[in-house]
TrEMBL record:
This is Electron transfer flavoprotein small subunit. One of its GO terms (molecular function) is electron transfer activity. Pfam families: ETF. InterPro entries: ETF_a/b_N (IPR014730), ETF_b (IPR012255), ETF_beta_N (IPR033948), Rossmann-like_a/b/a_fold (IPR014729). It comes from Dialister hominis. Residues 22-213 form the Electron transfer flavoprotein alpha/beta-subunit N-terminal domain. SUPFAM superfamilies: Adenine nucleotide alpha hydrolases-like (SSF52402).
Length: 263
């Protein structure tokens, strides 16, 4: 079987910086990591490959420095890695990103199962997986907490809803986004660590993909960040109510609360 995992380079939250002019994250920060939930997606693909055989391909979209997250994927056991990188892809929102990833996946050929982390550390939208599935016209399930392959051509997925579990069976090809509780990602192997520095990272640019220039990057993004400002905690003020009698104190308190729209 052919498995594909979409991963994302994210900035370590302890080092996260936002450009005040563009409202976009500064992804040139050296302290960037592979999105933590994507590690669970990669582990799911590797575990299924170990069970049924096949190959695991990893794809990411980002600047050239995103290569290091692909190298980490190789150290965990990925077979092939691809980087969609082009200035034309810069500034993409989730819709433009999903469109580009879907085009890259079509370029790479057909896959039996595609995995994505449920959401990313930096934006937490949980939109990429379902959008990619829609653009590829395949079924998808989000937030998988258990996956099993018991019947050829079908995958069984369990996900947690608010107060109960739901078990679904999907016909392949399909896409799954993974929850943190699905598994425990494996550590890189010694062989994988030795391999990662010599692996060929295949580059894909806009010229390599069948894409409409008006639908990629900032141009193809219908959502924009207009303003970024720091969160300022509300200012606390003490209010002292004094009255000669209890009834008078209550009246003064009610009048004060009405002024601040509490009642």
């Amino acid at each position: 079987m052919r498995f594909l995992v979409c991963v994302k380079q994210v900035v370590d939250t302890s080092k996260m910086e936002v450009d005040p002019n563009t409202g976009r994250l500064n992804r040139n920060n050296a302290n960037s990591i592979i999105n933590p939930l994507d590690l669970h997606a990669l582990e799911a693909a590797l575990a299924l490959r170990d069970q049924v055989g096949g190959t695991v391909t990893v794809l990411t979209m980002g600047p050239p420095q995103a290569e290091h997250v692909l190298q980490y994927a190789v150290s965990m056991g990925a077979d092939d890695v691809y980087l969609a990188t082009d200035r034309a892809f810069g500034g993409a929102d989730t819709l433009a990103t999903s469109y580009t990833l879907a085009a890259a996946i079509r370029k790479l050929g057909s896959f039996d199962l595609i995995f994505c982390g449920q959401e990313s550390l930096d934006s937490n939208t949980a939109q990429i997986g379902p959008e990619v599935a829609a653009m590829l016209s395949m079924p998808d399930v989000s937030g998988a907490v258990d996956i099993s392959y018991e019947r050829e051509g079908y995958i069984t997925v369990r996900r947690q809803l608010s107060d109960e579990d739901e078990v679904l069976e999907m016909k392949l090809p399909a896409l799954i986004t993974t929850a943190e509780s699905l598994n425990r990602p494996r550590y890189p192997s010694v062989l994988g660590i030795m391999k990662k520095d010599h692996v060929e990272i295949h580059k894909l640019t806009s010229a390599d993909l069948d894409v409409d220039p008006s639908r990629i990057g900032l141009t193809g993004s219908p959502t924009r960040v207009k303003q970024v400002r720091p969160v300022v905690p509300p200012k606390k003020e003490n209010l002292r109510i004094e009255g000669k009698t209890t009834d008078e104190a209550v009246d003064l308190l009610c009048t004060a609360m009405q002024k601040i729209h509490v009642i």
